[in-house]
């Protein structure tokens, strides 16, 4: 066994019902005296409670999906003009992504408080969109110094969004099994992440106000993100980044739709990995395990339901082919990629 694994330096605090106290402690540890609080308008009241007692100098609420460059520039300007010395972001992946965009150019430390299962908070990956093109990169400056996970903040997240966001986390696990830098530690983390999500998401759907399901899902989502940060971005994420940037599709739902198609596409080429995923689901096969979970959750099925035009299938093929890692388990061609995108667009079961 020969491999190199890099563990990212980050504090992680699981504090159900105690976000306000935990966040204050993390900001104090940074010795920050002027905080920029980043939260969408829809999260303003929640963010206000989480940030109670913090030395907030700037409140920024312009949060846009896929982090357009002009939105990032305005946030960066607000941070500089406010002379802030730390960022606290409260929200989902778009909010965390905006904080990362600010940190990328300012070097400011981030304390992230997630309200979805997006996982961006546990990675050093940033993303920005300009026109129809979404660009991503890796930079240590964007890795939040601390994460505060408080499952009680998720209790009002609607079941439909919880399902999509949780399946987005599951996609991190699956991609981490065969992404360019995947190693045995990544696969172990991803397997446990699948188990946590497979336990947690049905519990959230059955009892949205129950804390245990939310905690299990958060646990799985965190492990998924840590695995993904190390393993890198595989075929699934390359497809979703292209589609999201080109057609402004909702992030979590796009991942939820595409995931079963990529799993079926790659699984047969890596039987040992396929068995590991199947075991994590407690299912005879990986594809059957994911299908059963999606059926139980009423998962999103078709890209056309979220605004992707039919002619977008052909338009997306070339940029996806250019982005997919060369060592993807199954060779990707124009023909099989078109068939995959067509099935995902129509909402058919994967081949």
Describe what this molecule looks like in 3D:
- The protein is of the alpha/beta class and 351 residues long.
- It has 2 domains: 11-154, Rossmann fold, CATH 3.40.50.1970; 159-346, Dehydroquinate synthase-like - alpha domain (Dehydroquinate synthase-like, alpha domain).
- Helices cover 53% and strands 11% of the residues.
- The chain has 13 helices and 8 strands.
- The chain has helices at residues 19-29, 44-50, 69-81, 93-106, 159-176, 184-206, 211-231, 235-247, 251-267, 271-281, 286-297, 312-323, 334-346, and strands at 11-14, 35-38, 56-60, 86-91, 110-114, 125-130, 133-138, 146-149.
- The strands form 2 sheets. A 6-stranded parallel β-sheet has the order 1-8-5-4-2-3, sandwiched between helices.
- A hairpin with a 2-residue loop joins strand 6 and strand 7.
- Helix 5 (159-176) runs antiparallel to helix 6, helix 5 (159-176) runs parallel beside helix 7 and helix 5 (159-176) runs parallel beside helix 9 (251-267).
- The longest helix is centred in the middle third of the chain and has 23 residues, at 184-206.
- 53% of the residues are buried.
């Amino acid at each position: 066994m020969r491999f190199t694994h890099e563990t990212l330096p980050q504090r992680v605090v699981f504090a159900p019902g105690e976000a306000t106290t935990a966040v204050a402690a993390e900001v104090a540890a940074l010795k920050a005296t002027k905080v920029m609080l980043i939260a969408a308008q829809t999260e303003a009241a929640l963010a206000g409670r989480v940030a109670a007692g913090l030395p907030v100098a700037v409140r920024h609420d312009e949060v846009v999906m896929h982090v357009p460059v002009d939105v990032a520039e305005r946030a960066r300007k607000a941070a500089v003009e406010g002379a802030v010395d730390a960022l606290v972001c409260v929200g989902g992946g778009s909010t965390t992504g905006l904080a990362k965009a600010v940190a990328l150019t300012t070097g400011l430390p981030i304390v992230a408080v997630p309200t979805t299962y997006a996982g961006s908070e546990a990675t050093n990956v940033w993303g920005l969109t300009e026109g129809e093109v979404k660009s991503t990169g890796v930079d240590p400056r964007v890795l939040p110094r601390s994460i505060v996970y408080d499952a009680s903040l998720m209790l009002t997240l609607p079941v439909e969004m919880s399902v999509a966001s949780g399946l987005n986390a599951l996609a991190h696990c699956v991609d981490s099994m065969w992404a360019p830098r995947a190693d045995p530690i990544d696969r172990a983390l991803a397997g446990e992440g699948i188990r946590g999500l497979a336990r947690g998401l049905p519990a959230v759907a059955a009892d949205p106000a129950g804390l245990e399901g939310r905690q299990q899902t958060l646990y799985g989502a965190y492990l998924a993100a840590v695995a993904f940060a190390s393993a890198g971005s595989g075929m699934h994420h390359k497809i979703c980044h292209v589609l999201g940037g080109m057609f402004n599709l909702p992030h979590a739902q796009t991942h939820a739709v595409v995931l079963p198609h990529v799993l079926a596409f790659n699984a047969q080429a890596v039987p040992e990995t396929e068995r590991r995923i199947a075991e994590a689901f407690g299912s005879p096969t990986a594809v059957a395990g994911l299908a059963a979970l999606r059926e139980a959750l009423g998962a999103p099925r078709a890209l056309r339901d979220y605004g992707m035009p039919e002619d977008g299938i052909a338009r997306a093929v070339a940029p996806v082919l250019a982005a997919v890692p060369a060592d993807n388990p199954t060779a990707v061609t124009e023909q099989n990629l078109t068939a995959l995108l067509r099935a995902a667009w129509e909402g058919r079961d994967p081949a």
